[in-house]
Amino acid sequence: MRIRLDLQDEYMHALESAETFNESMYFNVYDPKPNIGAWFRLGNRANEGYAEMTTCIYLPDSSVAFMYARPHIENNDAFDAGGLRFDVIEPFKSLRVTFEGKVALLSDPLAMADPRKAFTEAENVDCAVELDYRGLSPMLGGEPEIEEGDTGVPVDMQFAKGHYEQHVGATGRITVGADSWELDGYGLRDHSWGPRSWQAPYWYRWLTCNAGPEDGFMVSVIASRDGKVRRTGVVFENGQYTPIIDAKLETKWTPEMNQETLVCVAKTFDREFEIAGSVMSFIPLRNRRDGKVTRIGEGMTRYEWEGKTGYGLSEYLDQIEDGRPVGV
């Protein structure tokens, strides 16, 4: 199946008729010098009248500045909602992330397991973000060239029709309350469009990492409800992508069933190597729809592989059945 990706795909796509149509962008970053990490996401659900807006900043003292909202939107014309905005300056090369609004200061990020209680008890402070992102790697992904609507998957079980990712660098400033930090770090971004249900994957593990401007990786392990598991990814080396064709992942869990450490054995066409990850800061999030609960654990993670040290996110999504995450 051919994958199409054009410069125009950096911008907004036509709003489709599916109720769950989502267009989203996501950016993460980590700078070890101030020990600041962050990720930002806007998901436009114009047919449902709102955007999913998330700002998550991992602070040097292990606390997290966090805000989630569903601001009202009427169209899919821009990524600009709830104080968060994404601008494409030059497709595939330069983008800007800005945020201005309140965030909840979570001294214990695990408190977000009960969002209502966490938001009620947390101190709310002003936050401002100005980050300029630059593309470092080739583009990974795009939109499969198939007949419209001919995905073979029911709309309520689709996660994205088009999707691409890119390793990036980011510079700028993050201000939380009275504290402010200059950042010069690295991360990964993505862009998705099409119907999306957070309940579609049975579970997945998404590991992203940078060790500088030309080194990093992305590992994706996705399980469907029929028991099939897809294991893919890329190694980012010498400014290019090397495909990962298989990945085996073992995780050590905390008593709350959050990822604590991980070991991933990744395989390319010509070598096999081990990735060791240790979660530095973790926040548990969730999505609820039609009586179903999905847990999304977001860990700012330190990685080591092939003599390198890097940083990024370990994102673990699980459906909750009988009170437990299915992939644990």
The whole-angstrom Rg is 19 Å
Q: At the third CATH level, what is the topology name of the largest domain?
A: AttH-like fold
Name the beta content range. Answer: over 45%
**What's the number of helices?**
1
Question: What's the CATH class of the largest domain, please?
Answer: Mainly Beta
Mean pLDDT: 95
Instruction: Quote the distance from N terminus to C terminus.
Output: 33 Å
Oligomer: single chain
Give helix and strand order, one letter per element, not per position.
EEEEEEEEHEEEEEEEEEEEEEE
- Structural class by helix and strand composition: mainly beta
Q: Helical percent range?
A: under 10%
Shape: globular
Say how many strands there are: 22
**Total tally of structural domains:** 2
Low-pLDDT runs of 5+ residues are none
**CATH architecture level-2 label of the largest domain:** Beta Barrel
Largest sheet: 10 strands, antiparallel
